Amino acid sequence: MLPQYVYFKAFNASGDVTGDAANITASVSLADGTFQAIAGTPVESSNGIYRFELSATQQTLSNATFSAGSSTSGVSVLHMEPVNAESTGPQAR
Q: Residue 47 phi/psi, 5° resolution?
């Protein structure tokens, strides 16, 4: 089962990108299927880290691939995941 949230890091050549939530979109491929959008606008938690909430259906499978991007020129978005179950925050993947 997947976690309730999936995290992404937004950055550019100057460092972390904050305030870009409205421009970030993400998608998920479940069990090697077709990519489908993760609905909604992400919430920025801190320092360019954004989180999307997965739907109940998107949480049911254990095999998932995530993709994200920003429509802001020069901004890259990287998927992150928790270090382990006791982790308090995500790490770059």
A: 45, 45
CB atoms under 10 Å from CB of 4, counted, come to 13
* Maximal CA-CA distance, the chain: 38
Q: Which residue is it, tokens 């909430």?
A: 53
DSSP conformational letter for 55: P
Question: Would you write out the chain's pLDDT as a tens digit for each of its 93 residues?
Answer: 667 888 999 999 999 999 999 999 999 888 888 998 998 889 998 899 999 988 887 777 667 889 999 999 999 999 987 554 444 555 555
Burial 36-48 (b: 16+ CB within 10 A, else e): eebeeebebeeeb
